[in-house]
């Protein structure tokens, strides 16, 4: 081995018989002189090997291993190898120490690692690059290649255009109407003995959609901040809470309907009358639930069981339950409209929750959407009259007898689930007709949802307008004033 005292003499057993060169050019042709051939390159540290294989020829030149660093020794001190050698380092039988050769560096592996991919390899990645399926390193290599390769750049452009023709991405949510279609198919084969009333179907479907969204959420998402927004009649306002706080709000407002049907009220017998006061009382009494730190599974189960109880109760009650009055503080609705109101509220707050957790949420089914828009349209004449009494709307232009046609605004909601409604402008008792229309508003379902939920200022709603500007303004502001906490 090579030590601090220089290379040791070569062991004849490590090389073939004298005169039998390996013929690979490193130790020259056969050596007839009988002297040991010198190895090519500087002395190396051989790797450990078995004695049975120690009779092979002189190995080819291998990549050099780094030499171990030895601590500096004081001058004049013999190394252990020199002290143990009986012949000493300057023994005449030791081969003369060859001058050190330049250190060889094997750069083949390093250069292969940093060598850019070939043209053919990069061209084969163009399809994956167009689909954005490459790794970051592959993407960088392909895009660098496209800067100076015209043929690949043209091919990449064609592939990107082809990708645009593929089907657009869809979210993983089920079709909102799937549940209704499955139930309709089942009931068509075997009608239910106790069917769910048609006016309660929208609430049943929207509560089920919201429950499906909540079922996939983790504890951290239940604590996600949510900004509840509504229009208070003069300006947009809001309240900060969490996902858990929103579900608690829905539960206590649904409790008003439950109490009207003889079911337990979540807030007990001495609950406040107004909807905002009920919500604030719940958030104050259950700060953990409102803050999202309580058991979210229990809260969701309480809200969902209450919804099931509402639907079961009106289903067993039959037609007699539809005309019962439900007091919502400042106004009263029959049970059939109260269920549509709660369905709309589920849709609005499900959208708030989905926005807070960055999840897409689709519009309701067309039949349910039309029923909810119809409720809002029927509430608009009373909302106009209330704003007029508060001095927030223009006075009536032409009063007519109850049931007679009066000045009308034509409200058109476009798309699936939309329709045409005629809103009397001067009195809730008047009848709106197409012949008496003095203004026309056209908007899509999403815009109507944003406006009726109080999420956008009325003057900024994207609507098509034609006719009496004052009447259009009054109806837009009245629609926004339907929103509440």
From TrEMBL:
Q: Give start-end positions of Pro residues composition bias.
A: 34-46
User: What is the top-level taxon of the source organism?
Assistant: Bacteria
**Bias kind Acidic residues: ranges:** 69-85
Pfam families given in the database record: MDMPI_N, zf-HC2
Query: Which terms does the record give in the GO molecular function aspect?
Result: metal ion binding
Record-annotated Mycothiol-dependent maleylpyruvate isomerase metal-binding domain positions: 204-354
Q: Could you tell me where the Low complexity compositional bias lies?
A: 86-96
Q: What is this protein called?
A: Immediate early protein
Tell me what organism the protein belongs to: Streptomyces botrytidirepellens
């Amino acid at each position: 081995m090579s030590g601090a005292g220089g290379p040791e003499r070569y062991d004849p057993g490590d090389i073939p018989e004298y005169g039998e060169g390996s013929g690979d050019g490193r130790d020259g042709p056969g050596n007839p002189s009988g002297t040991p051939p010198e190895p090519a390159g500087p002395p190396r540290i051989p790797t450990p090997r078995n004695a049975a294989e120690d009779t092979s020829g002189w190995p080819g030149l291998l990549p050099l291993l780094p030499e171990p660093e030895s601590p500096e020794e004081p001058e004049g001190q013999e190394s252990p190898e020199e002290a143990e050698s009986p012949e000493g380092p300057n023994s005449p039988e030791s081969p003369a120490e060859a001058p050190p050769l330049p250190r060889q560096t094997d750069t083949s592996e390093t250069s292969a690692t940093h060598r850019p991919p070939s043209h053919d390899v990069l061209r084969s990645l163009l399809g994956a690059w167009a689909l954005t399926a490459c790794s970051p390193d592959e993407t960088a290599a392909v895009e660098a290649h496209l800067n100076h390769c015209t043929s690949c750049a043209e091919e990449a452009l064609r592939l990107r255009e082809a990708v645009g023709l593929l089907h657009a991405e869809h979210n993983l949510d089920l079709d909102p109407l799937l549940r209704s279609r499955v139930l309709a198919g089942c009931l068509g084969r075997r009608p239910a003995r106790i069917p769910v009333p048609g006016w309660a179907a929208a609430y049943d479907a929207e509560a089920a959609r919201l429950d499906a969204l909540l079922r996939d959420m983790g504890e951290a998402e239940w604590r996600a901040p949510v900004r509840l927004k509504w229009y208070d009649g003069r300006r947009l306002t809001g309240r900060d809470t969490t996902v858990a706080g929103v579900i608690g709000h829905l539960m206590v407002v649904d409790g008003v309907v439950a109490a009207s049907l003889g079911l337990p009220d979540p807030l007990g017998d001495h609950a406040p009358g107004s909807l905002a006061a009920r919500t604030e009382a719940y958030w104050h009494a259950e700060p953990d639930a409102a803050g999202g730190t309580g058991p979210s599974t229990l809260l969701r189960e309480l809200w969902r069981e209450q919804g099931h109880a509402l639907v079961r109760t009106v289903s067993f009650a039959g037609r007699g339950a539809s005309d019962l009055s439900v007091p919502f503080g400042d106004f009263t609705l029959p049970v059939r409209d109260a269920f549509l109101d709660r369905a709309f509220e589920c849709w609005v707050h499900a959208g708030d929750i989905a926005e807070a957790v960055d999840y897409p949420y689709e519009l309701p089914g067309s039949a349910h959407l039309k029923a909810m828009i119809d409720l809002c349209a029927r509430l608009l004449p009373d909302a106009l009259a209330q704003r007029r009494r508060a001095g927030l709307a223009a006075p009536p232009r032409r009063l007519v007898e109850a049931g007679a046609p009066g000045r009308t605004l034509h409200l058109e909601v476009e798309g699936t689930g939309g329709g045409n409604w005629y809103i009397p402008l001067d009195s809730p008792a008047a009848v709106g007709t197409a012949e008496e229309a003095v203004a026309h508003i056209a908007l899509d379902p999403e815009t109507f949802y944003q406006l009726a939920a109080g999420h956008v200022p009325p003057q900024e709603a994207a609507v098509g307008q034609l006719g009496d500007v004052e009447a259009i303004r009054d109806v837009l502001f009245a629609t926004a004033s339907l929103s509440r906490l």
